[in-house]
Amino acid sequence: VKLRRFWVRTLLRLYPRAFRRAYERELLDLYTDIGLHGIHLTWDLIVNAVLVRFDDSRGASVRTPRTGRRWRFGDGWRADLGSSWRAFARRPAFSLLVVLTLALGIGANTAIFAVTEWVVLRPLPFPRPEEVVRVWWRPDSFNQRIVALFQERATSFSSLAAFSGWSFTLTGEGEPEELSGAVVSPNYFSVLGVDAVLGRTFVLSEENPGQTDVCVLSEGLWKRRFGGDEGVLGRRIPTETPPRANFRVISPGYFGAMGVPVLEGRDLTDADRSGGPPVGLVNQKLAREIWPNESALGKEVHVFGPSGPAFTVVGVVGDVHQHGLAIEPSPEMYRPLEQWSLGRNYMMVRTAVEPERLVAAVRDTIWSVDADVPIVRLSPMNEVVSGSIAASRLTAVLVSAFAALALALAAIGVYGVASSIVTARVRQIGIRMALGAGGGSVLRRALVQGMFPVAPGVLAGAIIASTASRALDGLLVDARAPGPLTFLAIAVFLAAVTLLACYLPARRASRVDPVTVLRRE
Amino acid sequence: VADHRDEIRALLPLRPLELLVLAVLDETPLHGYAMVERIEARSDGVMRVRPGDLYRVLYRLQKRRLLSSKAGDERRTVYALTPLGRRVLEAEAKLLRGVVAGVGRKRKEKPA
């Protein structure tokens, strides 16, 4: 009860004195009578303090002393501007500090918001992406009946479209090119809310079999490959659909070129041809998952179920980050290209010269064999690797930039606090020196006084940051939260900034003639 | 009593809690806790009055001279309507009667 009395009295300081005098005792009684306390009491008193103050300020009309008319916003802004400028000119260093802090703060906020909006809020090129849900389906169990069933029963969705990623080879005109695309249900574009920039999207009757020889091009492809020609409408485009599969079929010399170690058994050789006994390799990950306690060599592997085609494991190879450095290697098997050619094929070329110089030669060699083979991309392995880490590199650069900005803001803030404390004591320092204090002891004193409020802040910051980063640790993949050394380094850095902030004005003061300082008093 | 018509007009319409405070004081002078209880009873429990809200309104009404206060028994202060307060309450009641006059009457059938 005593505590509540104290708390209510404290909060009542927010009210006009007349209010406090008239109602303090009654309010206390009433809170006790109806049993309102804690956060509700606090909130009640704070909200009403604001309302009472607001009401009071509206009731009394503020009049400007000279003209006697009501004060309006914008009055005397010239005078305000002038006095601001004079204040700025009087303490340029301090003013610059303030401006810099504001600039960094506003800039950082804008940048973070812009990046967040770009990456998180608006990453997709169609309207209201938050309303769109994507459901993955295993390819072997997906068919038209399931789509129909969804359309009939899923009442929570306004519409439903089906699509399956596919690739097409554009042949006939110019260089053959492999295009990524999708086979889609006719309503695909209307569900996404995207319309054609030229011509039309699909109509419902085009869903029927035998009507499927129509396509919609992306704007990018239309402009790049067809020069943005409107005559493309109605034109027949020759394409082939390459077969697709989920696993890797390899060509004679892949491992030699890639340098993947054979850990057990043998590598594939030229002797593993079509017609020969079906063989294959598995990687370490797959071998350990399926045969944890025995050798994989000689085991028979059936693909696509027990009745599917089978091969014999002749070797175990090391794991390869096929899908990007940040992604764990998956269980994989390798078949000789001659025994099973499926899907997209890759060719590895090892060379002593710069890879870029070989591009034309490699392309011409391939097309001399078959001019309709599309070459999707020719790229040096370095680029393939750096492409896989480009996204995380961008994130890392952004996060580092924001961290540097935050550190700069902290340093500026700490500098401002410490130097203003010491600057405020310049006169005191002068008086001490006039009374005979030595320069050294005065300087030491100033440093201690300036450090005093900063040190607990730095300590608290370090503790909070290390706790927060430990919580963050669980969210990081393949990266570790900063260790104690990082926090120590930052604390030391900020302490050094503080020391400098105290030292400069204190030294100035300790060198000034005490008489000059006292005369100013 | 001087004619306060303009002053009364400037005070209308009252805010809900102001109206309720004046209304319960119209019957008899009351202290704070009694007002809270009566307001709750009179509004069918809809208006749960918090102390901060009540005294903000008392402060406002006293400043506008609609209420007077005097020491009652048990150290409690008792609040009562001033003549101006009563006239404001009556003006507000008239206003509200006009506002709610049609409410609750059976509606005419809408033309198709």
Primary descriptors:
heterodimer, A: 521 residues, alpha+beta, three-stranded antiparallel sheet, 17 helices, 9 strands, 51% helix, elongated, B: 112 residues, mainly alpha, 5 helices, 54% helix, globular
Explain how this protein is built.
The complex is a heterodimer of chains A (521) and B (112). With 521 residues, chain A is of the alpha+beta class. Chain A has 17 helices and nine strands. Chain A has helices at residues 2-12, 17-34, 38-59, 77-90, 92-121, 144-153, 188-192, 219-226, 254-258, 284-290, 355-369, 381-388, 390-424, 426-434, 439-473, 484-511, 514-520; strands at residues 163-170, 177-184, 239-240, 248-250, 262-265, 279-283, 300-302, 310-317, 333-336. In chain A, strands 4, 5, 6, 7, 8 and 9 form a six-stranded mixed sheet that branches. Chain A has a three-stranded antiparallel sheet with strand order 2-1-3, with no helix packed on it. In chain A, a hairpin with a 6-residue loop joins strand 1 and strand 2. The radius of gyration of chain A is 37 Å and the shape is elongated. The two termini of chain A are 49 Å apart. The relative contact order of chain A is 0.06. Residues 60-69 and 242-251 of chain A have low confidence and may be disordered. With 112 residues, chain B is mainly α. Chain B has five helices and two strands; from the N terminus they run H-H-H-H-E-E-H. In chain B, a hairpin with a 5-residue loop joins strand 1 (67-71) and strand 2 (77-81). The model of chain B has no long low-confidence stretch (mean pLDDT 85).
Secondary structure: number of strands of chain B: 2
Broad shape of chain B: globular
> Structural class, from secondary structure content of chain B?
mainly alpha
> Kindly, what is the distance between the CA atoms of the first and last residues of chain B, rounded to a whole number of angstroms?
56 Å
Helix percentage of chain A:
40-55%
* Estimated radius of gyration of chain B: 17 Å
DSSP helix count of chain A?
A: 17
Order of helices and strands of chain A: HHHHHHEEHHEEHEEHEEEHHHHHHH
* Percent range of helical residues of chain B: 40-55%
Give a quick account of the main beta sheet of chain B: strands, pairing sense, barrel closure: 2 strands, antiparallel
The poorly predicted ranges of chain A are 60-69, 242-251
Largest sheet strand order of chain B: 1-2
Alpha carbon gap, first and last residue of chain A: 49 Å
Give a quick account of the main beta sheet of chain A: strands, pairing sense, barrel closure: 6 strands, mixed
Strand content of chain A: 5-15%
**Quaternary organisation:** heterodimer
Radius of gyration of chain A: 37 Å
Order of helices and strands of chain B: HHHHEEH
